[in-house]
């Protein structure tokens, strides 16, 4: 028996995904190789993302409802190039907050000393509690932890590391700078941000999601410089990790890509 990370009830916990399973399922089904690789070890195939005992059955069901809303109404239509503008209701903010809550709490519990500088450390429990109270319905607003969501796409038809990162990468992290800390969550053509503690709203306003209703669309967004810096660092990481694939893995990937191309014409 353990405590549910959301409601605090002592019970048998479900094996929960930190990032929703439908993200990895889509990434795998649309990959030329048919597999997803871990960024920390490119020779290891990932099946469906990190899973840990995290939520009770009731809270897992609560999160699943918001995941279904996002998956059906926004994620798949945008990934499949069916729509680039979406009217949304409060369930979008709830879904994003549920993902930010999982990423932040998981990082705080497992990698606190690696992710959080001491000046920022005291703000993480406050942010976690704000998200928790919002998700449980005890507060109508997530307070400082208002969610941001950016729709991404490739910048050209060229096949390069930048376009690969913008459209295919799955990446989550807790970032800290000299005066701020935030969740950075990137899944395929979506970039999600959640402030933990920031000193200025500059760069955060245009991508904010209302906790009530609004319209999400593909447009130029103003983002803080440190977010853009993180994206550029991740793009460079893709290039460096390509050289870390073993010869055996490179041969397997090449074979799967060739077979995938042939299958499309047969």
What's the helix count? 9
Q: Mean pLDDT, as a whole number?
A: 84
- In what range is the share of β-strand residues? 15-25%
- Which structural class do you get from the secondary structure elements? alpha+beta
Order the strands across the largest sheet as they lie in space.
8-11-10-9
Radius of gyration: 19 Å
* Straight-line N-to-C gap: 52 Å
Give the CA-based shape: globular
In total, the number of strands is 12
Biggest beta-sheet profile? 4 strands, antiparallel
The figure for the number of domains is 1
Q: Could you spell the SSE succession in H and E letters?
A: EEEHEEEHEHHHHEHEEEEHH
Relative helix content: 40-55%
Spans of 5+ residues with little confidence (pLDDT < 50)?
Answer: 37-47, 250-266
Describe what you observe in this structure.
- This is HNH endonuclease.
- The strands form 5 sheets. The chain has a 4-stranded antiparallel sheet with strand order 8-11-10-9, sandwiched between helices. Strands 1-2 form a two-stranded antiparallel ribbon.
- It has helices at 21-29, 57-79, 90-110, 112-115, 118-121, 123-135, 161-168, 225-242, 247-265; strands at residues 2-3, 10-11, 14-17, 36-37, 45-46, 51-55, 85-88, 148-151, 170-176, 181-187, 190-197, 214-217.
- The chain has one domain.
- Helices cover 45% and strands 19% of the residues.
- The longest helix is centred in the N-terminal third of the chain and has 23 residues, at 57-79.
- The model is unreliable at 37-47 and 250-266 (pLDDT under 50).
- The chain is globular.
Secondary structure blueprint with pairings:
Elements: E1 2-3, E2 10-11, E3 14-17, H1 21-29, E4 36-37, E5 45-46, E6 51-55, H2 57-79, E7 85-88, H3 90-110, H4 112-115, H5 118-121, H6 123-135, E8 148-151, H7 161-168, E9 170-176, E10 181-187, E11 190-197, E12 214-217, H8 225-242, H9 247-265
Antiparallel strand pairs: 1-2, 3-6, 4-5, 7-12, 8-11, 9-10, 10-11
Helix pairs in contact: 2-3, 3-6, 7-8
